[in-house]
Write a structure and sequence with these properties.
The strands form 4 sheets. Strands 4-7-8-12-11-10-9 form a 7-stranded mixed sheet, sandwiched between helices. Strands 14-15-13-16 form a 4-stranded antiparallel sheet, with helices on one face. The protein has a 3-stranded antiparallel sheet with strand order 1-3-2. It has 4 domains: 81 residues, no CATH class; 71 residues, Phenylalanyl-tRNA Synthetase, Chain B, domain 1; 208 residues, Bira Bifunctional Protein, Domain 2 (BirA Bifunctional Protein, domain 2, 2-Layer Sandwich); 86 residues, Ferrodoxin-fold anticodon-binding domain (Alpha-Beta Plaits, 2-Layer Sandwich), CATH 3.30.70.380. α7 crosses α10 and α13 crosses α14. It is of the alpha+beta class. Helices cover 33% and strands 25% of the residues.
């Protein structure tokens, strides 16, 4: 069909349109076709210009052809969703953003001259954006700030350095505690920190003597060796020993990490608090391995725990017997760890059968300390200055041969309760051998006597003899003199 205008043309159709700028841009890119028209429309032209352009075209036609007249009504087909763009902000906010002491009437006048419609309610401005600026140019309060600043003059805005008030961060007691633990174990005890996945395998769980059904199974495990969430740090630490035993004669690792139990915890899954994540707890795990006897490793690890608690100012560690041993632990060396009357963890030697199932060729001692309980212990411990003793102490060593069933803590408590002059009883040696006879062990102590005067040798000897008789009556202990 012919669409040209010639001398015989009697009627014309005038169309004024606007097109979706996104569609124009994508189509032009896809077809590799760029025209003057596409370049205009892809920049998002004001849709209200279509009506203005139509009226102007009609006006020009009638000027050129005075006899021309409009033969039909205007058809307006709106396909665009054009909602009124209202930007809201306060006058105080505007002054703060511009950085100048602006006059409200001046601001209202300038915005009105730029075509904005302003309504003020209790210091709040509701600014209507004119259609020719509502093409992405003015869409948020910061754009109004730019307009006002431009009219005010950037050179007229006072220049000043911004003021930023910095507050010291709140102290995080948990982070500080973990730093002190790492320092005490790494520098004080020569241990190496280990960082493991929080996952274990079904095979490892069975080797430890547990039922895997009690463990949380992962919906999407990263491998067949990481299918469950761990309930103890011991499994990973034992695996660390197995992987490194060929390189070193003695190994000492520690790890600070989370364990996960199947019961409900206190961390919500979402903002609705309808469900909670499984219970998780942060713990400190420690392990010693070497060619020494299990009792030696057990005693050395107890010393490390005592040193750590002392460096943290958490008091003295006390090790007490357990009623039920762990399935993977040597029942002869399995103890609770207490401090200031609070149970904070457990220390155990790994049963040799369990160790061999992990292909471990060394004996091992493992301890787990609850970080939360340790933090409570430190917070509740009041630090006091103790004046130095003015008089020298008297130190004597004594070794008792007792039955293997008698606990170290019972003997130590009896020694300290014997006399107020006994200030300290420190175990420094444990011996079992053929010379002592079956079911016997030797415990050697440093006994520290202290008074507000210098004790004579005769007084200390009498106290030592009385202590010997008391231990013989109470535990059937004999003095080892060989």
């Amino acid at each position: 069909a012919r669409s040209e205008i010639d001398m015989d043309t009697k009627a014309i159709v005038i169309e004024s349109a606007n097109f979706d700028f996104v569609s124009v841009r994508k189509t032009g890119q896809k077809l590799s076709l760029r025209t003057e028209s596409s370049m205009r429309f892809e920049k998002r032209i004001d849709p209200s210009l279509a009506e203005i352009a139509l009226a102007r075209t009609v006006e020009l036609v009638r000027e050129s052809c005075p006899d021309a007249h409009i033969a039909s009504s205007v058809v307006d087909e709106k396909k665009c969703d054009k909602s009124e763009n209202i930007i809201r902000f306060s006058f105080d906010w505007l002054k703060k953003r511009v950085g100048a002491d602006l006059d409200k009437d001046w601001v209202l006048d300038k915005l009105a001259r730029l075509g904005f419609e302003i309504k003020e309610t209790d210091g709040e401005f509701a600014v209507g954006v004119p259609s020719w600026r509502d093409t992405g140019d003015i869409s948020r309060p910061e754009d109004i700030v730019e307009e006002v600043a431009r009219m005010y003059g950037y050179d007229n805005i006072p220049k000043s350095m911004p003021k930023i008030y910095m507050d010291a961060p709140l102290p995080n007691k948990l982070i500080r505690l973990k730093r002190k633990i790492r320092s005490a174990l790494a520098y004080g005890c020569g241990m190496t920190e280990s960082q493991n996945y929080a996952f274990v395998s079904e095979e490892q769980i069975k080797k430890m003597g547990y039922n895997e059904s009690a463990y949380l199974r992962l919906a999407n495990p990263i491998s067949s060796q990481h299918t469950h969430l761990r309930q103890s740090l011991a499994i990973n630490l034992i695996s660390n020993i197995t992987k490194n035993q060929a390189r070193y004669q003695e190994l000492a690792f520690f790890e600070i990490g989370n364990i996960f139990l199947s019961n409900q915890g206190d961390i919500p899954m979402d903002d609705k608090n309808n469900d909670y994540l499984p219970y998780q707890e942060e713990r400190l795990g420690m392990i010693l391995a070497g060619d020494a006897a299990p009792a030696v490793l057990f005693s050395r690890l107890k010393g490390y725990i005592s040193l750590m608690l002392s460096s943290l100012g958490a008091g003295e560690a006390v090790f007490s017997a357990v009623e039920i041993s762990l399935p993977w632990a040597d029942q002869r060396m399995d103890s609770l760890v207490r401090a200031d009357g609070r149970e904070i963890g457990r220390i155990s030697c790994v049963d040799r059968k369990v160790a061999r199932s992990f292909s471990a060729k060394k004996d091992m001692a493992v301890a787990e300390i609850r970080i939360e309980e340790l933090l409570k212990l430190i917070e509740n411990t009041e630090k006091k200055f103790i004046e130095f003793e003015r008089y020298p102490p008297a130190v004597r060593d004594i070794a008792f041969v007792v039955d293997k069933k008698i606990l170290y803590n019972d003997i130590r408590e009896e020694i300290l309760a014997f006399s107020s002059l006994i200030k300290k009883a420190e175990l420094f040696d444990v011996y079992e051998g053929d010379k002592l006879g079956p079911k016997k062990k030797n415990l050697a102590f440093h006994i520290v006597y202290q008074a507000d005067r210098t004790l004579t040798s005769k007084e200390v000897d009498e106290l030592q003899e009385g202590l010997t008789r008391k231990m013989e009556e109470r535990f059937g202990a004999q003095i080892r003199d060989f």
